[in-house]
Amino acid sequence: IADLESQLTQSQVDLQVARHRQSALASELRESTTSLKAAQAEVTRLEAVIKHKNGRLRTLNDNYERRLRVADTTIATHTAELGRLQDRVSTLDRDLQKASQRAQAAISQRDQARAAHIATREYLSASFLPRPARDTIARLEKRINKVERSQKSRQDLESALAKLQQERDDLAVQRDELLGQLGERFMEITDLRAERDQAQGKLSSIASLLPSATGHKRTRSGAESPTSSTRASKAARSTSSSSQASASGHAPVSASPIELLSTAAVGQRATRSMSSSSSAGPPGHLHRSVRSAAKSGGGGASSLPVASEAIVHSDSDESSSGASGSTHVFDSDVAGNDSGSPESSRAKNEFGMPSCPLSDAELAALQPTTVPRSEWIPGYRDRRSFRGHDIVPWSAQDIRQISIVEMDADLLFHHYTKPMEWLIPLRDPVPPLGDWREDLVDEDNVRDLIKSAPWEVLAAPLDPLTFKSRGWFRHMKQLYASYEAEHLRAYWDSTHAFPVSITKRRASRYLDAFYTDRKQRRSRAGARWKSFLQQVLIGLLRGYCDLDLLLDPFFLHFPRPGEAGAWYPGIEYGADPADLLEALTITDAADRWRNHYRDVPEEHPALEIARLRG
User: Fold this and answer.
1) Where, if anywhere, are coiled coils annotated (predicted)?
2) Of the candidates 416, 454, 472, 427, which has an alpha carbon nearest to the alpha carbon of residue 567?
3) Any domain includes 49
4) Which pLDDT tens digit goes with each residue over 132-157?
């Protein structure tokens, strides 16, 4: 009986252990089932995201191809028109030369007739011969009449010559306008390519996650037992964690973001210089190789249109007299004339950019400026350290991490267009609703505000402080003036972005469209501003100017991330405006920076920087 009792006890213990094991196996089975469902849901979600991204990519590709075809058609039309205008100019030049030759012949005949007339008079006064003298006088009168007719014909030719010259000048202006339009088309194509590349990068990053998820799904579904499924999932998790740890262990920790960006810019410029074409056509010639090179090349300065370079060279015939226009900026005439500089013999790529930085000898051969180029901001080839009070308002820490040859359009766009907290203060915390007049933001007040066009205050004419409008600087000024006139409202929006709640946008189609258009205007203006900075990069690489050019009050600037830009109507202490127009008047009077000091140019912070005035 005792043996049976011990056996019964042992059996009960074994039964309890078996029940615990059964419970553990059931728990593992439930966990495996839950993990399988989660993996399947994640795979389904990723497939939906990829499908959406594929649709978006197809749409972008279609839009890109359509706009590219339109741009190609426009370029072909403009190129044909340009060729026709050039043929017309050549014909006018030939007609002008023929007219000049005829005029010179008429003048020569007139002089000969006058000489013969004088000689005849002297002869008659010396010895009177009645009949032969009358015949001679008659012949001379005929020649004089012929010369007078020739003189009248000469006057007609001169007037026709003046008309031809005027027509030639008009054709030259039309040619420059066509080249400018071609440059804008190239900028739009560059922006489209950047958007397409960004979408493809996002799609690749999402697609890279799909194979691991499907493999995880196959591991789950192909398991023979709950225990093996659990072990497989644990092994997959441990492998993933170890790979992440090994990847993080090789990440650099000592380089700053600006240094990393500058290093990447140097690599991109080196790649572009190696892949650029060595052949160069005439400035006005737009070959298809330009577009193919732009399609295969990187961003930054090399994506500048060749038309811009052509317009720059069209200004090279101006006189080179005059004083320097700034402490830092090169004399405008010299900057616009490449024929007399060492850089004229340098190879340029198909977009007009120097294929490599200027050498020390070429920099020394450039015309000297009031402040030596060795003190320009930043260093041209080598990174230089500055004292903070010598380069105000730039950050000495940021400037010593970069040089001009390391800079590209992306780095210039994100870090060096404007010093932080110079024109625009830092952003304040979002105030509570009771501290400002949200009730003023309604459809009627917004309509009245927009109807008044308050952004027109930014269109006030302002003369440049650091350069004169000749040569390369004239071309750069024309490009910027065109860009600013097109995106003036976006600049005003950037410092007067009053909140429009989602409730009000749902209640009013007008407010919803206003809110959407405001965001789109800012996006388009930012893309065009980045394209314009490629022109500034040309001036930096050629030694025409340094970063202080962008401090000129002539340029408008968007708030940088972290700077103020939102407008809360009626937030000023003691303010009780009746509508948005009155609130705008109060705000602009309190915050002069919101209108970029265009209404009070004498208060612009750039006027306090002595080195800008020279």
Assistant:
1) 1-56, 82-116, 147-181
2) 427
3) yes
4) 666 777 777 777 877 777 777 777 88
Let me know whether 499 and 584 are in one domain. yes
Q: Do the beta carbons of residue 383 and residue 400 sit within 8 Å?
A: yes
Sign of the CA dihedral 220, 223, 229, 233?
negative
Distance separating alpha carbons of residues 331 and 317, to the nearest angstrom: 15
Give a three-class secondary structure readout of 275-304: HCCCCCCCCCCCCHHHHHHHHHCCCHHHHC
Residue 369 and residue 579: Cα distance in Å, rounded?
52
Token pair 């009077």 is at which residue? Answer: 589
Per-residue exposure over 437-472, b if at least 16 CB sit within 10 Å of its own CB, e if not: bbebbbeebbeebeeeebbeebeeebebbbbbbbbb
Which tokens hold the place of 56? Answer: 């978006």
DSSP code of 595? G
pLDDT tens across 238-276, in order?
Answer: 444 444 434 334 333 344 444 444 454 445 444 444 444
- Is the same domain home to 64 and 158? yes
Q: What is the pLDDT of residues 232-245, one digit of tens each?
A: 444 444 444 444 43
How far is 305 from 363, CA to CA, in rounded Å?
25
- Domain of residue 164 covers 25-241
Q: Are residues 211 and 300 located together in one domain of the fold?
A: no
Q: Write down which residue in 241, 276, 310 finishes a domain.
A: 241
Q: Are 53 and 206 in contact (CB under 8 A)?
A: yes
Are 236 and 262 part of one and the same domain?
no
Q: Please tell me whether residues 387 and 522 are part of one structural domain.
A: yes
Per-residue tokens: 219:
């591991």
Calculate ∠ Cα 405-378-311, nearest 5°: 60
Q: CA-CA distance, 34 to 320, in Å (whole number)?
A: 80
User: Pick from 571, 561, 576, 580: which is nearest to 431 by CA?
Assistant: 571
Q: Say if residue 216 is in the same domain as residue 321.
A: no
Query: Tokens in use for 594?
Result: 């919101």
**Distance (Å, rounded) from C-alpha 475 to C-alpha 336?**
9
Measured distance CA(359)–CA(42) in Å, rounded: 57
Whether residue 334 is contained in a domain is answered as yes
Burial of 428 (0-12, 13-18, 19+ CB in 10 A): exposed
Contact 470, 568 (CB under 8 A): no
**203 and 287 within one domain:** no
* Domain presence at residue 429: yes
Question: Within a domain: residue 512?
Answer: yes
Domain-ending residue, one of 209, 241, 273: 241
Domain count, the chain: 2
